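Batch job 17 of 40 flagged for manual review because the log was empty.
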Amino acid sequence: MSLAPRIIVNNLSFHLSNTAVSLCNICLSFEALKYGIVGDNGVGKTTLLKLLSGELAPDNGSVVCSGSQLSIPQTHAAIAENATVGDVLSVSKIITALHRVNSGDFSDHDFEIISDQWDIESRIESAMKHFNLSDINMNALFSSLSGGQKTKILLAKILIFQADFILFDEPTNNLDKESREILYHYIDECRNGVIVVSHDRTLLNKMDRIIEITTKGIQVYGGNYDFYRHQKDIELAALEREFDQAKRTISQVKSSIQKNKEKHDQSASRGKKSGPEKLDKFTMGFKKDKSDQSKSRASMKEEKIISENLKIVSEIREKVEIKNQITGSLDATKVPNGKIVLEIENLFFKYEAQTDFLIHDFNLCITGPERIAISGENGTGKSTLIKLIRNDLTQLSGKIRIGVEHIAYLDQDLSFLDANLTL
């Protein structure tokens, strides 16, 4: 017995302005299962997720959801700079109303805000502990957290507010190994509907269905990512065999036509050299008509075969997505060996809300064209160190000396991009 669908997408069409994203006549049915949405960058994965959540409205068609939804976005850039952790978790107003009720200074409106969320504080405590966020206060600015902590705050929301369907957009981005394992375990245990946009194969292998989006349309595969890849390979191999067979058939028929033409030309040439055959006009005309009819039938048959196989080739080309490879190269570094690129001495730093130092007596010296990776758990100060080097933050003590003229910086949220500018 199949599960009743909770999200129905009916003949949905949507075009995202100034982009190549175009979804046409999409029909999908989502049940209380786990769905992974895959595809190349820019084909419309996040757009489809936003259409399912109601953040975007379709140009045509409809999205009907019979249950509750909770959407976890990929980027944190859209969240207001002054938003607190409680604001992001959508609990600030509920907590404030609870405190007013507990103090005895309340109104009827406070009960409307609380509704049936009387255990909200215990649920918050449990969710924050689950993602190792117990030391973060609800009044802390969301913007002050590391990228990984921000992602974990958003994930904690799914434990605080249980929804029929949870929509994730690249949830493992910015997460350390431990946090990814926590998310994987949650997905394994989850019995509600889950829709995930991701490139994380470990996560995608926990899905019940894979939805592939390409420039050719949308295809649903019943199984996890490995099953999808296996089926995809079988499909492509079959199309390749059919394509090669059609091309061979066209080549063989064209070769046969050429050979028959050459044979006919040679026969005609021999006839001219040996002189005309002594036949009456009626017999000569009959033989000529018969020969012409035979050649015409053969020609029509050959043309039909070529036409049918050209159609097969054209249909296969329509089915197969042609991908343009993007390549790039980086010039060799011009930093000479031995040159001090960065020198850090006795660096100390902590945020205002912290009691302990986030960075404690840190020292580092980078010389020449070295390549350095900064690794560690979420919230241990990796991005903070980069911001201190860039002078976006000011250290409490210690020295940072930059030995090169230009520094390029690519942050997690691509915040250097102006959303109002075109390409």
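Reviewer: the log was empty due to a logging misconfiguration, but the result itself is present. The chain has three domains: 7-233, 237-270+301-320, 340-402. Unflagging and moving on to job 18.
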